[in-house]
Amino acid sequence: MTPTDSRELENLILRYAELVDDGDFAGVAELLADATYQGSGAPLQGRAEIERWFRDTLIVYPDGTPRTQHVTSNIAIEADGNDAAEVRSYVTVLQALPGEVPQIIAAGRYRDRFERRDGGWRWTERTVKIRLVGDVSKHLRS
Fold first, then answer.
1. Predicted model pTM
2. How far apart are CA 141 and CA 26, in angstroms?
3. 7 in the Ramachandran plot: left (φ > 0), alpha (ψ -120 to 50) or beta?
4. Is the pLDDT of residue 82 over 90?
5. CA 18, CA 5: separation in Å to the nearest integer?
6. CA dist 88 → 27, 36, 55, 81, 97 (Å)
7. Is 64 left (phi over 0), alpha (psi -120 to 50) or beta?
């Protein structure tokens, strides 16, 4: 794995955070189109299923966003040959509505698997393990 490969994988992980924070759930689904997404519920697969889950689960405000800021850190990349990699990282999610103080609403870890396909890296698996949960009443639909 080259430094360029590592940077591409980091950029994909950071792009996911941007898309979620922007409320672009179709974009998230495109990134994860070839992956199995495992959060707290049943595993999800395919663009339509992943996009629907994000739309059905996250509260979106009039500005079109969930009013969140995902901070991804502690990114560790391990090559599994030349065309596969496993990446572990931490995630901290902040949220603030107008007039409110930003607060941490969740923190945990991502475990990702990627494969190189057609000259680019694609997700094959994303597992989300949230370990710390704050007030998510303004983030998640009941």
1. 0.94
2. 19
3. alpha
4. no
5. 20
6. 22, 16, 25, 17, 30
7. left
